[in-house]
Specification:
The structure holds 2 protein chains of 2 kinds. By secondary structure, chain A is mostly helical. Chain A has a single domain (about 1-115, about 140-290), classed as ABC transporter involved in vitamin B12 uptake, BtuC, CATH 1.10.3470. Chain A has helices at about 1-30, 40-55, 60-90, 95-115, 140-160, 165-175, 180, 185-210, 220-235, 240-260, 265-280; strands spanning about 130-135, 135-140. In chain A, strand 1 and strand 2 (about 135-140) form a beta hairpin. Chain A starts with a helix and ends in a 15-residue tail after the last helix. By secondary structure, chain B is mainly α. Classes of the chains: A mainly alpha, B mainly alpha. At the A-B interface, helix 3, helix 4, helix 9 and helix 11 of A face helix 4, helix 10 and helix 12 of B.
């Protein structure tokens, strides 16, 4: 029983990280309608920058993570300007953009692999001390992951509710042609979305890297998690993305409890299949009429 | 040098099957799939398990099941398994179109890799299976590189014309109709689900055959040959050559197989030659999608 509680606590911490990734991915998918496969490479840039700052330049870890997130955001901006925007101007089809995005992912992944090598890199953080909460033990790193992650999620949630900019960004996903008609800066919105998404992903990537390290080939399985979390919760709802991420992490914990840790990746795909078959609009999604699709 | 050319010819023969299978689904059906390497891997593993067994095999007790079937039977088994896997993914993924269909196939590809990698009892997981017997076809044992070229050529001449016939058959035409306007085609009584599923099944079965050929050619398989990178490679060779006709895929196959070989002669440092090759593929995909979504000689551009 204690093991289950412990695994649920770990699952919640992971769930916050998955939710961050899902928000980064979902923000782009909801507004720019781009299936952002390059995200799988993009969110790894931040942890590597943090690694460079921390290990090569011996800066403290909070500074490393901050710089990492900033660098990730800049990378997201560059990807939008150099990659997606030309396609958008050309009115390229969704699949073409997706394939190009995949190409960008391959490029980023392999550039990282050439610079940093294929092996796992860990930041210099010393040995983590742990705290007991009744039957549950959490390391300081997990507590930091949870606090920073939920703070970012709450901030984003409030911003999405209250800030007018996000209304326009949501509208961008429904009718992109109408946005310039209303005198709103379409391209600037797209840049903001991609920058913000990369920053969120980069934050999640840094938090993951502080705990377990980072290697250039881990992006795709996290992208799978992010996209499935977004789909599970419902594409249109911010709370759905968070819920999907947490639910996915908890299910993974249950998998570890019942079977073995090596089958964790299978959970993602099973959930994907389950959602596609049972509830294609997601847990909180609203079913659309055919003509709205 | 001679063997090197024969090796390239064999690989082109194997990948031609994959490219033309994918062409049926993508070029005619209009569906981009990222799990062809999955079917390829299922075929390779089935073929191996059906071949590697027997009393004297050292691996017999390490595998979930193994048999010592003759080569043609094993190849048929590989086709059946590949087709079965394609039906399994198709039934689920075909509820969607566009991004989420592609994404579901991508997820399927990654999961298949996880299963092959972690299920040690099935095929020794990451260790792979070695000692796959050389094919014996009706008493003719195939050992030499040129004999493999002949074998792959014979299989190609049986498989590819069948696909070419399919392209021009009512089935192929109905796929084309679905590709161009799905709703209109459905209103004419063509079932999108059924036609797409059949196309996927055919592609899966032929990819399975290609997998069987590959397994018996290299005589050692492990899951890393059938991962997402392989799927991306297959997608890019079809997109480069162009889809929706007969000349596109073969151009793509020849270019994509020979390109890395050409890079080998440029003299890149070995330590990151593989990464550099991947980077070139990545840039090729981006530039192709930007300037020529139809590929070098294609009839159909992704939508």
């Amino acid at each position: 029983m204690n093991l289950l509680l412990q695994l649920i606590a770990d699952g919640l911490v992971n769930g916050i990280l998955f939710a961050l990734l899902a928000c980064g991915f979902g923000l782009v998918y909801r507004s720019a309608r781009v299936f952002h496969l390059a995200f799988a490479g993009l969110f790894l840039i931040s942890p590597y920058v943090a690694y460079v700052v921390n290990v090569w330049l011996h800066a403290p870890i909070w500074l490393a993570v901050t710089l990492g997130v900033v660098a990730g955001a800049v990378a997201g901006y560059i990807v939008e300007v150099l990659l997606y925007h030309p396609f958008f101007r050309r009115k390229a089809s969704n699949s073409a953009v997706m394939v190009a995005s995949l190409g960008a992912f391959i490029v980023i992944e392999n550039v990282l692999a050439i610079i940093f090598g294929n092996e796992l890199r860990t930041v210099d953080r010393g040995l983590a001390s742990s705290f007991d909460f009744g039957p549950i033990t959490l390391t300081t790193i997990q507590i930091f992951q949870f606090l920073i992650g939920s703070a970012a999620l709450v901030a984003l949630g409030v911003a999405i509710r209250k800030v007018r900019l996000f209304k326009a960004i949501w509208a961008l996903g429904d009718e992109p042609e109408l946005v310039p008609v209303l005198g709103l800066p379409l391209t600037r919105y797209r840049k903001i979305v991609f920058t913000l998404s990369a920053a969120l992903g980069g934050l999640a990537g840094c938090l993951i890297a502080v705990d377990v390290g980072v290697d250039p080939h881990m992006g795709m399985s996290y992208l799978l998690i992010a996209a499935v979390a977004m789909l599970t919760g419902g594409i249109d709802r911010y709370t759905g993305w968070v819920l999907g991420g947490v639910a996915l992490a908890l299910l993974q914990s249950l998998m570890v409890w019942q079977f073995s840790a090596k089958w964790v990746d299978l959970v993602t795909f099973t959930v994907l299949i389950g959602v596609l078959v049972v509830r294609p609009q997601g847990i909180l999604g609203l079913r659309k009429r055919l003509e709205e699709q | 040098m001679e063997n090197y050319v024969l090796h390239l010819l064999t690989m082109i023969g194997i990948y031609a099957i994959l490219a033309y299978s994918m062409n049926l689904v993508t070029g005619f059906g209009g569906l981009l799939v990222f799990c062809l390497a999955g079917f390829y891997g299922v075929g390779a593993y089935t073929h191996t398990l059906l071949q590697v067994g027997g009393a004297e095999s050292r691996l017999a007790d390490e595998l979930l099941f193994s048999a010592a079937c003759p080569f043609p039977v094993a190849l048929l088994g590989a086709a059946l398994a590949g087709g079965g896997a394609a039906i399994a993914i198709g039934v689920v993924a075909l509820r969607f179109r566009g991004d989420f269909f592609v994404f579901a196939t991508l997820g399927f590809q990654m999961m298949l890799y996880t299963v092959l990698y972690n299920w040690n009892e099935l095929g020794r997981g990451a260790f792979g299976i070695y000692g796959i017997p050389r094919p014996v076809v009706f008493g003719w044992e195939i050992n030499q590189p040129w004999e493999y070229v002949v074998l792959v050529g014979v299989v190609d001449t049986m498989v590819l014309p069948f696909l070419f016939l399919l392209y021009r058959s009512p089935f192929g035409l109905s796929l084309k109709a679905l590709r161009d306007n799905e709703r209109a085609a459905e209103s004419l009584g063509i079932s999108a689900f059924r036609q797409h599923l059949s196309a996927l099944m055919v592609a899966g079965a032929f990819s399975g055959i290609a997998g069987g050929l590959y397994a018996s050619y290299v005589t050692y398989i492990d899951p890393t040959s059938f991962g997402l990178n392989e799927s991306i490679f297959i997608v890019s060779l079809l997109l480069l050559g162009g889809s929706g006709n007969i000349r596109g895929p073969i151009i793509g196959t020849v270019v994509m197989i020979l390109l890395p070989e050409a890079l080998r002669f440029v003299g890149l440092p070995d330590s990151f030659a593989a990464n550099l090759r991947e980077i070139i593929y990545g840039f090729a995909l981006i530039l192709l999608m930007y300037w020529r979504p139809r590929g070098l000689a294609g009839d159909f551009s992704l939508r």
